[in-house]
Amino acid sequence: MCTQKRIDNMEGDECGICACRVFLPFLAGIVMGAGLSLLYAPKSGKELREKIGDMTDDAVDKVKNYATEAQEKITSVIEDSKAVIKEKMAVLTSAIEAGKEAMELEKQKYRDKET
């Protein structure tokens, strides 16, 4: 699922790096850092719980929005792909029909030459 990019390291050797191997630990570090900063902040327990709850609600809303956008884009790509496939099928069908007609004409010419 991951696409690898080729990079040169300090020795000049190529090595493959998967984007998700870099992004996911980075994202996990951000979440853990945010959580630790909230835990060590000088606030009361109630204020801290409210703040964590608000941040969680915001994160859930953002994830829902991103999922909805992704679903819309995927649906759009699928519909566009269906249209392209139908168009290509029509071209292919007409090419096959033209080939059949040309073959029949050649058969007829050959039969006419024999007789």
Task: Tell me what you see in this structure.
- It is a single chain.
- The model is unreliable at 4-8 (pLDDT under 50).
- With 115 residues, the protein is mostly helical.
- Strand 1 and strand 2 (14-18) form a beta hairpin.
- It contains 2 helices and 2 strands.
- The longest helix has 70 residues, at 45-114.
- The chain has a two-stranded antiparallel sheet.
- It has helices at 19-39, 45-114, and strands at residues 4-8, 14-18.
- Helix content is 79%, strand content 9%.
What is the number of E strands? 2
Radius of gyration: 31 Å
Order of strands in the sheet with the most strands?
A: 1-2
State the low-pLDDT regions, or none. 4-8
Span of the ends, CA to CA: 64 Å
Judging from the principal axes of the Cα atoms, what is the shape? rod-shaped
Whole-number mean pLDDT:
79
Strand content: 5-15%
What can be said about the biggest beta sheet? 2 strands, antiparallel
Task: Kindly name the structural category.
Answer: mainly alpha
Give helix and strand order, one letter per element, not per position. EEHH
Question: Could you estimate the helical fraction of the residues in percent?
Answer: over 70%
In DSSP terms (H or I, runs of 4 or more residues), the helix count works out at: 2
